Amino acid sequence: MNTYQNPYMSFDGITPEEYTFLQQATASLTENQARTFMSFYASKRRNPQDIMFATLAGFLGVSGVQRFMTDQIGMGILYFFTAGFCFIGTIVDLINYKTIANDYNRQMAYESFNIAKMSN
């Protein structure tokens, strides 16, 4: 019986690209550093489905929430005041929500990796 559980599988909505990236990024970390990485990354990571639901909220009059969630404040303000570029930008974001989430999560993984490397 294998009692080892992969810690990355505990993330909701993890994509194969994100899983592969996380495995490669944490391969050189010690066990303590990997725990530090996981705690920081888990707190900063965004679920792709959450990004999709925030994008759908743009059709209800609250455009740009997905951009605020991914720390793109300027784009969020622009989406908000232009109704998601007259819904065209919102439709594009709805199609590309996984890419938006993966790009943000990759950036947060880099930050978490650097914090973990400095911890020991």
Automatic annotation (TrEMBL):
Claim: Transmembrane helix is one of the keywords in the record: yes
Subcellular location per the Swiss-Prot or TrEMBL entry: Membrane
Membrane topology: Multi-pass membrane protein
Residues passing through the membrane, by range: 51-70, 76-97
Source organism superkingdom: Bacteria
InterPro entries associated with the record: TM2 (IPR007829)
Domain TM2: 55-95
Keywords from the UniProt entry: Membrane, Transmembrane, Transmembrane helix
Pfam families assigned to the protein according to its UniProt record, in alphabetical order: TM2
Key word Membrane present: yes
Name recorded for this polypeptide: TM2 domain-containing protein
Organism of this sequence: Mucilaginibacter angelicae
